[in-house]
Design goal:
alpha+beta; 17 helices
């Protein structure tokens, strides 16, 4: 995939000239029985705060029945929160309850919609508690058989799957994507930092000259303790700049450049406003795929890879209502890792049987298991990464970018205990060794002002705060004098650009702007580095090194890229670079 700057400029110009009107959409939900609205039913509105503003609903109900729910206003993220507004009202009407399971990956919007319906019922003068328990039906749904045809079928609509879909469709292929979850995004939605890349136009514009491809390769190999597949790492590094340009061309620029844990230079590329990179890119990639005519089938789980004469020729999949046979000329697996499959993780490391995980519920290793069933080889399956900054009460991932931007970690004694921007495995091990196996991530108001991500953490209630170091220490429950001394010492180290205690070399800023904030964090399962063995063309390999014709894979479903430890920012580089390669290779194979 050679650089073609002229092509990028042409594509960017075409996109710049296109006018895309995004209007708020109203969704109507009616009872599945089509029961007429009883005399005496009332209609009222209610609202609650969603991720991007108020979610406003109109509900028609009486004392015993919810007849309809209409979302009147919402500004939630397209393809994520918007899916909640499309799907959940039907679920609530069918259950005759607002208290139904939310959609994984869109918890904030799900909760907002539930609260808005509850508020509308109360506003109507009804007893909302009467609708707090969902009615369930045990009636089995008789599934019908459906057969579909395409050039490329992709299993998984996370970052890798959507990237591959957009690239394959851009190359002229007819593409179908199946996703077992009710929304797109997968684990990519949880990425909050950025994308590592080398020799980019954004680095050049900032005068960053020491973050080249060779340095990126060596940092990644060192971070992975040298067990990575160097050929895959090299491709990721060499193609990362083109991948950043491609994202820019589809309307997803990553112009902000920073450092991240475990790297010696500034590779991390982030959205301009500091938004979480995962949801930002998923929304853009999903829009690009849909624009190019990709068919995305949600709530549809792949169960088997179809083969003919040893080559992959499609998949079997099922939804609530259909059993699908999807015939394709090539297959791309982008199902993610297995960080939510505790039985599988425990088979490699028994200590992880009851671990905390940052992974979404769908990260169960399906693609790996399906590919193994047709002879695929795996690599590094025992390499399972622990992330050091997982919010202690909710298991929400706290971005590594905060430490790169200047945050420090403080133990129960009010002291620093590690170089905060060390590799994840080293920082996690040090944190686990502290009292209570947890610590506090500390930032100041200047960092808050510069980061919408931190502002989101405050909004979600993850932080404690104080106007002085002593006040924050009291809120944290640590020794006030020890913490104040630690912070003053740290600020001195920042000024001197020298950390004699732990050898930290990243000194973004002193933490001296009140008020101050802290998030209690612990270590949790974050990434499974192992997976299917692939070559640099993303073709899936057998144990003897031969290719399974027609079968490609990209993203966390694969192994070899990250070795024994993944650097923060490399997952996004992985799914973007290899997602594009898989899309291009699979569409070429299918041509």
């Amino acid at each position: 995939m050679k650089k073609n700057k002229m092509l990028y400029r042409i594509v960017a110009a075409v996109l710049a000239c296109a006018v895309v009107a995004l209007a708020l959409v109203t969704y109507q939900s009616r009872s599945s029985s089509n029961a007429p609205v009883a005399e005496g039913a009332v209609t009222a509105t209610g609202s609650a705060k969603g991720m991007e503003g108020d979610v406003v609903v109109e509900v028609t109900a009486d004392a015993t029945t919810i007849y309809s729910i209409t979302v009147k206003e919402q500004n939630e993220t397209q393809g994520i929160g918007s899916v909640v507004c499309e799907q959940l009202p039907d679920t609530m009407v069918a259950a005759n309850s607002y208290n139904v399971d939310g959609i994984a990956g869109a918890t904030v919007t799900s909760d907002a919609l539930k609260e808005a319906v509850k508020a509308a019922l109360t506003s109507a003068g009804l007893d909302a508690s009467a609708f707090a328990v969902a009615q369930t039906s045990d009636a089995a749904v008789e599934k019908t058989a459906e057969s579909l045809d395409c050039d490329v079928v992709i299993v998984g609509a996370g970052g890798a799957g959507l990237t591959a879909a957009a690239q394959a469709a851009e190359n002229g292929a007819k593409v179908i994507v199946v996703e077992k979850m009710p929304i797109v995004g997968g684990n990519s939605l949880k990425a909050t930092g950025g994308m590592n890349a080398a020799d980019t136009k954004y680095q050049e514009a900032l005068g960053i000259t020491d973050s080249g491809v060779d340095e990126f390769i060596e940092d990644t190999m060192n971070g992975g303790h040298q067990i990575n597949d160097r050929s895959l790492v090299t491709v990721m590094a060499e193609e990362s700049s083109d991948a950043v340009d491609w994202l820019d061309a589809i309307g997803a620029p990553l112009p902000k450049v920073a450092a991240t844990g475990g790297t010696t230079h500034k590779y991390l590329h982030e959205p301009e406003d500091g938004s979480a990179v995962g949801s930002y890119l998923v929304e853009k990639l999903n829009a690009q795929a849909e624009k190019l005519g990709v068919q995305i089938m949600l709530n549809t789980e792949a169960t088997e890879i179809l083969t003919e004469n040893g080559a992959a020729v499609g998949i079997k999949a099922e939804s609530k209502e259909h059993n699908y046979t999807i015939h394709a000329k090539s297959v791309i697996l982008a199902t993610g890792g297995f960080g939510a499959n505790f039985d599988l993780m425990a088979s490699f490391n028994p200590a992880l049987a009851n671990a905390v995980t940052t992974n979404h519920a769908g990260a169960t290793g399906d693609g790996i298991l399906m590919a193994e069933a047709i002879g695929a080889d795996t690599v590094d399956m025992d390499q399972i990464q622990i992330h050091p900054t997982v919010e202690a009460n909710t298991a929400a991932l706290i971005t590594e970018g905060l430490r790169g931007d200047g945050a420090v970690l403080i133990n129960a004694e009010g002291k620093r205990f590690i170089d905060e921007v060390g590799t994840r495995d080293v920082v996690s091990a040090a944190e686990i060794a502290q009292t209570g196996s947890c610590s506090w991530l500390v930032v100041d108001q200047a960092m808050v002002d510069a980061s919408s991500v931190i502002q989101g953490y405050i909004k979600k209630g993850y932080t404690v705060t104080g106007q002085t170091y002593e006040e924050l220490a009291k809120a944290m429950g640590v020794d006030e004098a020890a913490f104040a001394e630690t912070m003053k010492t740290w600020n001195g180290y920042v000024a001197a650009k020298n950390d004699p205690d732990f050898g930290r070399t990243s000194f973004a800023k002193a933490l001296d702007t009140a008020p101050y904030y802290a998030i209690k964090v612990t270590a949790g399962v974050h990434h499974t580095m192992g997976g299917l063995k692939i070559n640099t063309n993303t073709e899936v390999l057998k144990a003897d090194g031969s290719v399974i014709p027609g079968l490609f894979a990209a993203g966390e479903v694969t192994g070899g890229v990250h070795g024994a430890n993944r650097l923060g920012g490399n997952a996004v580089a992985d799914f973007t670079v290899f997602g594009r390669i898989a899309g291009a290779a699979a569409s070429k194979y299918a041509a």
